[in-house]
Amino acid sequence: MDKYGMAMALGGIVLAALLSGIGSSIGIFVASRAATGVLSEKPERYGQMFIMVVLPGTQGFYGFLAAFIVMLRLNFFGAGGLPDVTFPLGAKILTACLPVAVAGLVTAIYQGKVSASGIMMAGKRPEMAFKAGVVYAVMVEIYAILGLLTTMFMLLKGINWPTVAGA
To answer: 96 near 14, Cβ under 8 Å?
Structure first.
């Protein structure tokens, strides 16, 4: 087995899950700070705030999904051991994981900022919670989804996955 190929594949797994998870954590933190401020004065608006706080968390799920697919395709959870991952294959896997990793990191942070702005608006004008809060935050989500789709297309259609001997 080419240890560098497997190292690159593992790097793709780690980056997909880690960067999108970091972005989601920061985005949720930013939105939560704004929601906590509004809720300290108007706790009845919890339902309006909740969706805007959790929206930046979706990117972490997207990164996890990509990492999980790579682990499944490389037989991490099956009997028979891991397949031979050549250096070029490892580079393809790493490259395929980058769109969801980078898009997840960046969009989650900015989605948290957009959500925080929507939360502050909804604190003063609750009728604007959906229009200004959720809709604007979902606009940022579209780019996270595009990163996920790019990664999925590359992983599922752009890579000839090796098989495990004897599996």
So the answer is: no
Domains observed in the chain? 3-156 (1.20.120.610)
Q: How far apart are CA 32 and CA 28, in angstroms?
A: 6
Residues 6+ apart with CB under 8 A from 51: 133, 134
Q: Is the pTM of this model over 0.85?
A: yes
List the one residue out of 156, 7, 16 whose CA is nearest residue 73. Answer: 156
Widest distance between CA atoms in the chain: 64
Question: Are 98 and 33 contacting, i.e. CB atoms less than 8 angstroms apart?
Answer: no
User: What Rg do the C-alpha atoms of the chain give, in angstroms?
Assistant: 19
pLDDT tens sequence across 22-38:
999 999 999 999 999 99
What are the structure tokens assigned to 60, written together? 């972490």
Classify burial at 116, counting beta carbons within 10 Å of its beta carbon; exposed 0-12, middle 13-18, buried 19 or more: buried
By the 8 A CB rule, do 52 and 61 touch?
no
CA distance 36 to 47: 13
58: its two tokens: 């979706």
Q: Which of 62, 57, 42 is nearest to 115 (CA)?
A: 57
The answer to whether the CB of 122 falls within 8 A of the CB of 45 is: yes
